[in-house]
Amino acid sequence: MNPITVLICDEFSIIRNGLQTFLEASQGIEVVGVSDSAMSALMLIRQHRPDVVISGLKYRGMSGVELIRRVVAEKDASGAGARCIAFSMDWDDDAISEVLRAGVDGVLIGDSKREEVEYAVRTVAAGGTALCSEVAGRLIDWFRSRDLHPGTDESPAISTLTAREREVLSLVGQGMAIEEVAEELSIRVSTIRTHLHRLRNKLCLRDRAQLVSYAYRSGLVKQSA
């Protein structure tokens, strides 16, 4: 089995070295590049085509959020390409919102243990989403602090969806099969499958049943009726 390839990008050498040490001690994971700037990271990503990119948020010039946006934008129609984990010593609500909107697949905090970093890399490489406990806790608090009414308030996760992804989620929520959604939107079935894959990743959902439930809870089905 081929190893999971990882590129690490952060402005601070102590962070780069620490992450590299963690991952190089993990079986089946290979660090293929290390960078201290977003621009050089982009070149290394195109050269090595890693499975996972771990990026800090602050660099001179291009920001880490913009780096994540560009990496996500370079994925092909099937969703193949590097998946991103954002790393920061301190997360505030604005930073969490920014990386989620950028399309990040995982979030780690500075005091993450080796096992947490390894788990995040393996989970993201396998197509899943990995959030550190602090960020997950903030999102849970966000939901609990609001009396959500369908169509009147949105979760942070749904705000990251594109207009097309919302359309697909709404139609799936109405009970349409993949082929019916493709016909309704006049696009290919393979494209719908790609959208569904991205929806599950962005919303941290496992299957179609959870997508349907989420569509109702978020109010998308009612809004499209």
UniProtKB/TrEMBL annotation:
Residues 154-219 form the HTH luxR-type domain. The keyword Transcription regulation applies. PROSITE patterns: HTH_LUXR_2 (PS50043), RESPONSE_REGULATORY (PS50110). Transmembrane segments: none annotated. The keyword Phosphoprotein applies. It comes from the Bacteria. Residues 5-125 form the Response regulatory domain. This is Response regulator transcription factor. The lineage of its organism: Bacteria, Bacillati, Actinomycetota, Actinomycetes, Kitasatosporales.
